[in-house]
Write a structure and sequence with these properties.
Blueprint: E1 9-16, E2 21-28, E3 41-45, H1 54-64, E4 67-71, H2 77-94, E5 105-109, H3 112-127, E6 132-134, H4 138-145
Parallel strand pairs: 3-4, 3-5, 5-6
Antiparallel strand pairs: 1-2, 2-4
Helix pairs in contact: 2-3
């Protein structure tokens, strides 16, 4: 079993969902914070529970130098999509408070979470939300970024 890499900070946050509270996690990379250039913010839909993706989110945070907001993918789909839109809206509104760059918003996920990320990205483009960069292959993207 591999140990999780260290982070500067990690926190849980409770957001408003369509049918009740949504618990999400925020991860900050080492060296981020006041007085530093803000890193991009990755909104990551991690499957049914955000906790399931803790090691994965730690790796993404460290390797990508990203602030990550990891939210669950709920069911049924219509609720999951509405919750995903709420999470993205909250993240866009609070990126500066999260010490992230509000002009560099990324969205991704795994499994059903990637389906949600893709749909929210499409909706965002149609409705004039802040621009979201959809990442569909994070491993390749991060490898290219770190070269």
């Amino acid at each position: 079993m591999t140990s999780s890499p260290p982070l500067t900070r990690r926190a849980a946050v409770q957001l408003r969902g369509t049918t009740g509270p949504i618990w999400a996690r925020i991860y900050w990379p080492p060296g981020s914070g006041p007085g530093r250039p803000p890193p991009p913010l990755l909104i990551y839909f991690a499957g049914s529970e955000a906790n399931d993706a803790d090691p994965e989110c730690r790796q993404l945070c460290l390797r990508g130098g990203l602030v990550i907001l990891a939210g669950p993918s709920t069911t049924p789909y219509d609720v999951a999509l509405a919750d995903a839109q709420a999470i993205v809206g909250w993240a866009a509104d609070h990126a500066t408070e999260l010490e992230a760059d509000p002009a560099r918003l990324l969205i991704s996920g795994r499994g059903d979470g990637l389906v949600l990320a893709t749909e929210v990205s499409r909706i965002a483009g149609q409705e004039g939300w802040p621009e979201l960069l959809l990442l569909t292959d994070l491993a390749t993207t991060l490898e290219r970024t770190n070269r």
